[in-house]
Design brief:
Strand content: under 5%
Order of helices and strands: HHHHHHH
Helix content: 40-55%
Structural class: mainly alpha
Number of strands: 0
Shape: globular
Distance between the termini: 22 Å
Number of helices: 7
Length: 173
């Protein structure tokens, strides 16, 4: 079990949470159901917007159809930087690193897995991840001084947001 069990737990947890977050933020005509894969992906406007490569405009009907039909020039690959990775789900074409890994759903997923699902409701901060680690250090004891349940960041001694932990969450989302 170990890592495989934890990964399965994370997948299960995020499956419901991500669909809830997408439904709340984008209010799609067809709400995403966590147990129905047929309403997800590029056939769903909200999912398509998030999974669209950042350099392609999902609002362009030609681009959208090209992605949905896997036409040349619109094929999504493992080298694509998807919109959900970016702050406000948009990319600056002159600086592809600006806002990268600061997407709201990505940060919510990070907090839900490494802290707690309830902490994902608050995603304020400058996006450098230090608020996640600092909030964990401050929340070690309740007001009565009783030790509360440890967050994953404390259990695995995660002292900073790492490229590896971001990659794990990006793949899970």
């Amino acid at each position: 079990q170990g890592a495989d069990g934890a990964r399965g737990d994370d997948t299960s947890k995020l499956k419901a949470l991500v669909s809830e977050w997408v439904n709340q933020e984008f209010k799609p005509d067809r709400p995403i159901e966590p147990d129905n894969k047929h309403l997800c992906g590029f056939t769903n406007d909200a999912c398509g917007r998030l999974f669209c490569p950042a350099e392609i405009d999902w609002n362009n009907p030609i681009a959208r159809a090209g992605i949905q039909d896997c036409r040349e020039g619109y094929i999504v690959t493992d080298l694509s930087f998807l919109a959900f990775l970016y702050d406000k789900y948009t990319v600056n074409p002159n600086d592809l690193e600006e806002g990268l890994f600061k997407g709201k759903i990505l940060v919510q997923g990070y907090k839900a897995i490494f802290m707690s699902p309830s902490s994902a409701k608050d995603i304020e901060g400058n996006g450098d991840g230090m608020d996640i680690i600092q909030n964990n250090r401050l929340a070690k004891k309740s007001a009565t001084g009783i030790k509360v349940k440890k967050h994953v960041v404390e259990i695995i001694k995660l002292r900073k947001v790492t490229p590896r932990s971001i990659t794990y969450i990006a793949c899970q989302v």
